[in-house]
């Protein structure tokens, strides 16, 4: 039995935990404001807000999520908000809705609900409201009619209004300004009571799940096998606290819980300290709602040859920890997880529980690059990451990875070995590219021809080094 709050109502349901939140709100609760669009997390028409009680027990963090890919089980103990739950009174518009109307941001109206919910999430955010954060809030929403400029104007108008938002008692202020109804103020206490109840029931009824499917954020499995996930018992790992942490161990290695999301990485002070360009890197991974949902381990075990986070961590020589139901563990390098297209060395009863990597030194170089048809939103045509350690213009160590150029995510071992000990120069990169081209085996598909992908990877190699050594290299001499 699942328990959560949907708008202002307490929900108890025995619907399958692997079914989608979208189908539940539309077909079980008849809240049809949440639209069915792509069912792949691309269009944003089904966007809802998911509020999670924070450790202080007094505040809730709301995040936008695409309900078409949100497992219903991940609503457990949370506050789910649809468009029907944000108006203070019937017939009145919230400031978000009013701004979109005022700036002509709605034509056919199909996408409008998604934009309204994303911008309401922007208003509820714990982060400062800036022009950049306002536009980032709607980066997962597609509009086929307005050309976006009207929606950008509406977002700018809201950001100006939110400049008066206080640092404390945010929900109270938002309620007064009618961004959200007054019932939002009572949700923290209601979730606190609900979670105490759920913990008590869990202690009494804890039973192992037989023949289950492990399910994290759902952003891969609910695209690829939605009927299977709905039909089988699932073990939900998204909310397991011990699988979501990000910490630095005593030996200096950085340890990530497998259920940490891409947005958890982007928000982590430790990760931002180690990777100063991390926000820009992870902005390439996907839209805000998908980063709020998709887990690191899910990206790894999906085994896509173009998994963005997989490519990122291959260049860091990350290791993974696998655990059986009997709590037996084994570690292996991430690069050894893949033995063929969509084929893993992981056994059926093993779960990926932890990822670790050596913390980069402040003088190390790291870069992640990606080319896709839609910037920030789409699956990569080719992606690549590079880690280097260099001194006085000579490369001491190197690790390059690439996706979209072979049947598995590739650590370019031969190219990395070739670069080690070489002087940074255009000639070195030209020679490294020759080695790299012999190391990859791209195919022609919907994302480009094999020749195009070879060209893209060459350009990404150059992009890494131009960022690392702008004083030694120029684009003109490389191309």
UniProtKB/TrEMBL annotation:
Xref: SMART domains: CO_deh_flav_C
Domain FAD-binding PCMH-type stretches: 176-362
Segments forming domain 2Fe-2S ferredoxin-type: 1-86
Classification via InterPro entries: 2Fe-2S-bd, 2Fe-2S-bd_dom_sf, 2Fe-2S_ferredoxin-like_sf, 2Fe-2S_ferredoxin-type, 2Fe2S_fd_BS, Ald_Oxase/xanthine_DH-like, Beta-grasp_dom_sf, CO_DH_flav_C
SUPFAM superfamilies reported for this sequence: 2Fe-2S ferredoxin-like, CO dehydrogenase flavoprotein C-terminal domain-like, CO dehydrogenase ISP C-domain like, FAD-binding/transporter-associated domain-like
Keywords: FAD, Flavoprotein, Iron, Metal-binding, Oxidoreductase
Entry annotated with the keyword tRNA-binding: no
Any one Pfam family match given in the protein's UniProt record, by short name: Fer2_2
Matching CDD domains: fer2
Keyword Oxidoreductase among UniProt keywords: yes
PANTHER family the UniProt entry points to: XANTHINE DEHYDROGENASE
Protein name as annotated: Xanthine dehydrogenase small subunit
Biological source species: Hymenobacter algoricola
Phylogenetic classification of the source organism: Bacteria, Pseudomonadati, Bacteroidota, Cytophagia, Cytophagales
Gene coding for it: xdhA
């Amino acid at each position: 039995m699942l328990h959560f709050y949907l708008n202002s109502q307490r929900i108890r349901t025995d619907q399958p935990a692997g079914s989608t939140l979208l189908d539940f709100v539309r077909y079980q609760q008849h809240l049809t404001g949440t639209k069915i669009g792509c069912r792949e997390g691309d269009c944003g028409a089904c966007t809802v807000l998911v509020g999670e009680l924070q450790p202080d027990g007094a505040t809730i963090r709301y995040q936008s999520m695409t309900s078409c890919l949100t497992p219903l089980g991940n609503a457990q103990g949370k506050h789910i908000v649809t468009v029907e739950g944000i108006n203070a009174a019937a017939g009145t518009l919230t400031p978000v809705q009013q701004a979109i109307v005022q700036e002509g941001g709605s034509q056919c109206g199909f996408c409008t609900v998604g934009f309204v919910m994303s911008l309401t999430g922007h208003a509820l955010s714990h982060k400062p409201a800036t022009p950049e954060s306002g536009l980032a809030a709607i980066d997962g929403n597609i509009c086929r009619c307005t050309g976006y400029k009207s929606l950008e104007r509406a977002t700018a108008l809201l950001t100006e209004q939110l400049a008066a938002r206080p640092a404390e008692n945010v929900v109270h202020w938002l309620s007064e300004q009618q961004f959200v109804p007054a019932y939002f103020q009572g949700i923290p206490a209601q979730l606190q009571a609900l979670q105490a109840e759920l913990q008590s029931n869990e202690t009494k009824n804890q039973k192992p799940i037989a023949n289950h499917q492990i399910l994290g954020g759902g952003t891969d499995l609910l695209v690829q096998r939605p009927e299977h996930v709905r039909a089988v018992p699932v073990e939900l790992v998204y909310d397991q606290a011990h699988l979501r942490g990000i910490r630095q161990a005593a030996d200096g290695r950085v340890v990530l819980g497998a259920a940490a999301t891409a947005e958890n990485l982007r928000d982590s002070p430790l990760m931002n300290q180690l990777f100063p360009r991390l926000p820009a890197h992870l902005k390439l991974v996907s839209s805000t709602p998908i980063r709020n949902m998709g887990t690191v381990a899910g990206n790894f075990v999906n085994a896509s040859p173009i998994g963005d986070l997989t490519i990122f961590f291959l260049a860091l020589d990350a290791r993974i920890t696998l655990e059986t139901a009997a709590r037996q563990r084994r570690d292996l390098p991430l690069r050894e997880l893949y033995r063929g297209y969509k084929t893993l060395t992981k056994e059926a009863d093993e779960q990926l529980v932890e990822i670790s990597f050596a913390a980069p030194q402040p003088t190390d170089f790291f870069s992640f690059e990606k080319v896709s048809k839609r910037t920030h939103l789409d699956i990569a045509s080719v992606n690549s990451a590079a880690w280097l350690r260099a001194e006085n213009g000579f490369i001491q160590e190197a690790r390059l990875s690439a996706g979209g150029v072979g049947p598995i995510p590739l650590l370019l071992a031969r190219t990395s070995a070739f670069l080690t000990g070489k002087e940074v120069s255009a000639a070195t990169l030209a020679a490294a590219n020759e080695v790299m081209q012999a190391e990859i085996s791209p195919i022609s598909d919907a994302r480009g021809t094999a020749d195009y992908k070879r060209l893209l990877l060459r350009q990404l190699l150059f992009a890494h080094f131009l960022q690392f050594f702008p004083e030694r290299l120029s684009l003109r001499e490389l191309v």
